[in-house]
Amino acid sequence: MTDIELQPAPASMTRGSVRKAPENFLASADIRAIQVGGAGAGRRGFLRDVFAAALAGGAATQALAQPAAAAGEGDPAILKLPRHSTSLGQPVAAHPYGQPSRYEGNVQRRQSPGLTQTNQASVSFAPIQSLLGIVTPNGLHFERHHQGWWDIDPQQHRFMVNGLVKTPKVFTMDDLMRLPAVSRFHFIECGANTGMNWGNVAVPTVQYTHGMLSCCEYTGVPLITLLEMAGADLKKGRFILAEGADGSSMTRTIPIELVKSGEVLVAWGQNGEMLRPENGYPLRLVVPGVQGVSWVKYLRRVELGDQPWATKDEAVHYIDLMPDGQHRQYTSIQECKSVISTPSGGQVLLGTGFYNITGLAWSGRGKIKRVDVSVDGGRNWRSARLETPVLDKCLTRFNIDWVWDGKPAIVQSRSMDETGYVQPTYKQLRAVRGSRSIYHNNAIQSWLVQENGEVKNVQLA
Amino acid sequence: MSSLRDALAAGLLAATLALPAWSQGKFPNIGRDATPAEVAAWDIDVRPDLQGLPAGSGSVDDGQDLWEARCATCHGIFGESNAVFNPLVGGTSADDIKSGHVANLQRPDYPGRTTFMKVPTLSTLWDYIRRAMPWDNPKSLSTNEVYAATAYLLHLADIVPADFVLSDKNMAEVQQKLPNRKGMTTQHALWPGNEFGAGKLKPDTQASACMKDCGPAPTISSELPGHARNVWGNLREQNRTVGPQRGADTTRPEGKLGDAAGPVKVVGPAGEDSPHARAIALTQQLGCTGCHNMQGKLVGPSFADIAQKYAGKTDYLQSKIRAGGSGVWGDTPMPPQDAPAADIKVIAEWLAAGGGK
């Protein structure tokens, strides 16, 4: 990652900071450039130059912890009309696809250093510390690739159904997109999410502890429709194999029961647009409640069979090592889990007083029923507000009021789903599974808020 | 007229009846039948009951040659390398082969888990090698080569002797010698169906939701050590610049309450406007970035280090990229690159000129 802007963000962005605008901030040539140049690289260069000039002129800049209104007549952010109030803005479609504000440049997917030796069999984590609501923007949806990602020509992509069917079928994307589509919001979580924390604290922020998690509206056709079109034998056929078209040809076994329920989708849409290449464009499987590895990307084939396949990622990986040395195989459901995203590790609270503690809860077994929050390390709990919508196998946002008195606090969240299952503590989870597993860690997360406002990832005895 | 209409109607009816319901159903003219050749081209999976296994064979000897040429780069000559992927071989014993349970899996102090400590079914290995290996050129092995590579691996794991020939005829027998063949269970509540007969099992944690004065006062048992503070980069630049908090500035020691209110640097993705975009894109496209980072060692040296060492040496870099080889930067050999010469030249020129971003 490199800087796109070498200078700090302008003073108006940071609370209570005062920065005097330099004299002649906008020279007449600059004004002409903004009027004539319009958008694009030229304008970007222009902005960079102007801000660099502003910085050079504002060397005496001092950040103040108190709101600026206390000094002099008031806040310069109010008293001095900014350029965006006094000059012409950019034209429509300056960015035909659009992009986030440059001030949101820190909100990005990231790799955790040292997690994998190669970049094409690796993971990028969604920045859930900075996400709002329940939807993950497509550009921030976490990635997990086994042999690198591809941008596949949708006109050349084919989808096949074979196995225990009367007639194996081939579908083009044109075929599939003619079918009646459904759109549903679901979370997707990698089975290894939070895996690095099984033994002890291993990463600093919620992006790295819980960021192999995303939630989108996925659009596609129920897989059962396509199986029926091929004349599937749903009595003999008890499992399906889903297979991808990338180098790894990722394969996973999925129960026919889920498929029959109509939940499993062959999807092309994600949050109102086509899937992003990093997420399987042009076609992927959606398997609600089940770990991400089964949501096969670049989906090219579904085979119906009477036996499970024991593919590499269900016989060597994504298996859970139990204390007696046995591995649990075909573990797939992502159990009820939650995490607080504000405040969370690697953040610093700006001062004492009111905070809205917020976070996300989800369950692979259905809807979230309740989320409790503790600020004293699990001694006492209060139930949080669940924000709507509360959907099946989907992220649910929770909020709860908190007035921080400046003393150390350990904040935790504990979720419960509609089956009555309660998210376990680390102690409870390790009592059953030991601490040598990698996958399916849904233990309660603890964040320590220190007196200096800095928040740390901790585990409790 | 009416007779014509009747005839047409009858014809239509007959046509409809002649079509099997499952091929038309509710969605006429969507999709088509797959040809047998198409199904054969894609239906390459092999199950534990060996359904799908094609006829063929390969010897340990042939496997060794293949291994050194195509597999050792990532897995080491003896399948034990930890440089790129987890070791394949090690941690199993003759007793494990007898019992079908790998004893080391019960030892919390045992340092790692190799493929052979875990894999319960030989079909899994065979299928994966065939569909996904070699990592940078998947599906390029012939059926017999897949048998040979599998045979060599089995020999490295002391499961078959050096003169063994693996084939579709003896796969089932060899599968019964895998050290961890009895090491898996489906008796748990994490499978979302009843197919394994375990669907009615209860979740393995049964926590309750105590609300007041629960348990003892908390004590912290684990947190990141101070020296790891900046390992993930500056966390300040990984958080939004407005809102109730900032990211911690991990380039500095911890400050006082309120210190976080100062300016925050906004960062962006690398290489967007680079004049070297084509060369950088090619390193991605040709798989170079699987082993080389821009800065800092990955499997191989960084592009920056290569550029420094071979400044101006376009010809040398071109031939090195084309031929591959080992020994200059470490033990891990680089596989030969069979991309178009023009593409290789672009990368070599870029590196020779400094390899800038």
UniProtKB/TrEMBL annotation, chain B:
**SUPFAM superfamilies cross-referenced by the UniProt entry:** Cytochrome c
Which residue numbers delimit the Cytochrome c domain?
Answer: 58-157, 258-355
Q: How is it modified after translation?
A: Binds 1 heme c group covalently per subunit.
Pfam families listed in its UniProt record: Cytochrom_C (PF00034), Cytochrome_CBB3 (PF13442)
Name the UniProt key words of this record, in alphabetical order.
Electron transport, Heme, Iron, Metal-binding, Signal, Transport
Q: Where is this region: Disordered?
A: 241-261
Question: In the record, which residues are listed under signal peptide?
Answer: 1-23
GO MF annotation: an example: electron transfer activity
Q: Which InterPro entries match?
A: Cyt_c-like_dom (IPR009056), Cyt_c-like_dom_sf (IPR036909), Cyt_c_ID (IPR002324)
Q: Where does heme c bind?
A: 288, 292, 334
Q: What is the protein name stated in its UniProt record? A: Cytochrome C
Q: Which organism is it from?
A: Comamonas flocculans
